Amino acid sequence: MMNEYKKAVLMKGLEALNDYDFRMLKSLLAQKLNLTGKMQEDYDRIKIADLMEKKYPRDSGLDEMIAFCKDLPSLRELAGVLRKERLRSNKEESQLLTFLDLSLLHCLVLLDGCRYSEGCVTNPFARRPRRRIIPTEPSREVGYQRSPKKVMVLKATEPFMYGTQDGERMMFHATVATETEFFRVKVFDISLGDKFTRGKVITLSDYIGRNGFLEIFGASSVSDVNDDRKLRISSTLVANAKATPKIIDLCCQGQGKFVNGRFLVHKKTVRGDFIFYEIQDDTGKMEVVVYGHLTRVSCEEGDKLQLFCFQVALDLGKWQLRSGIHSYIKEGLRYLSSRRALCSPHLSSTLHSQLAPDRNPRAHTDQTGAAALSEMNHFQKDFLHLWTFTFSARD
């Protein structure tokens, strides 16, 4: 079992640290591991894991690793992952001991001449089939993942622009699932859009798990599946993957979690460069704080916001969902406000005057007609764009 602890320390812990955090860990453990200055410079992650295994034979230093991570805000998520690995290792160790005890007892019973059959003694070792628990939250992975994962694409957003220090780049979000769990994915190579079509089965490999997302950076990380075995994904798992969380659950889970969901806007407030949307459901209310390019998305009271990658935060006692560098708002849910615009008396009269009696916009060459035509053309383009996204939003 000690190898399982070391595996968690090395592959889930040390490999997930950046170079600065790794140097900090070596500095803090220098006295306990008898590291000289030169050893701190020369020793890589594998050598440090070997030393930790010798120093802490009980758990290969997994508790030390957890204690280090939980004290750094940027590594608290990693600390949670390592705690789960410790619980899993402890559970496997306990199950092994229980199995050995039951095996010994079973042998004693057999030696005593008792046979298990129908109508006789009930076999105490017969296992009842376990009902599979269907997750309601996306699974999380941390660090570099090499092993291939066969998944089905449940949904994907349109590519969108996000800002970096080197300029603007393109990406899109996706949700994928295996037969037992689902994942949220950030795809930073938009040429993979054809791979991430709904219902398509693909294989993911050589990706990075970070902040609750699987991050895909190149075409080599995604491949088609050639075998004939189909993934049997339950409708409940698909529904859970697409569900909008309740506001009370978001507040109870604390800060830092990234959220996808569709929320009804009850109030909109503009404050400088920020837009604040008040959202509500039957469990409570909170704010959506939007900054940067997402402030250009048109959304009014009574519309719905389809959010991707918004982070839960607490500001002056008020719970918020804040936009970040990879946040996205699906614009198709502006259909209601577009329909209200279509019913506008001014715009209706403009359309009527432009299309009657000959229904030929090119026939109007006077200045007033040209202005009205321009207004109509802009509206037609916007409305067609919004109509198209509205139907895609229903998925």
Counting structural domains, the number is: 4
* Low-pLDDT segments: 114-122, 334-395
**Level-2 CATH architecture of the largest domain:** Beta Barrel
Amount of beta strand: 15-25%
Q: Tell me the total number of β-strands.
A: 15
Shape: globular
Which CATH first-tier class of the largest domain would you pick? Mainly Beta
Number of helices: 12
Can you put this structure into words, describing what you see?
- This protein has 395 residues and is an alpha+beta fold.
- The chain folds into four domains: 2-84, Death Domain, Fas (Orthogonal Bundle); 143-236, Nucleic acid-binding proteins (OB fold (Dihydrolipoamide Acetyltransferase, E2P), Beta Barrel); 244-333, Beta Barrel (OB fold (Dihydrolipoamide Acetyltransferase, E2P)), CATH 2.40.50.140; 344-393, no CATH class.
- It has helices spanning 2-13, 19-28, 30-33, 37-42, 45-55, 62-70, 76-111, 235-242, 247-252, 335-342, 345-355, 367-393, and strands spanning 143-145, 149-156, 160-164, 167-177, 182-187, 201-204, 207-210, 213-216, 222-224, 258-271, 274-281, 284-291, 304-315, 318-322, 328-330.
- Strands 1, 2, 3, 4, 5, 6, 7, 8 and 9 form a nine-stranded mixed beta sheet that branches.
- Helix 1 (2-13) runs antiparallel to helix 5 (45-55) and helix 11 (345-355) packs across helix 12.
- The chain is globular and about 65 Å long.
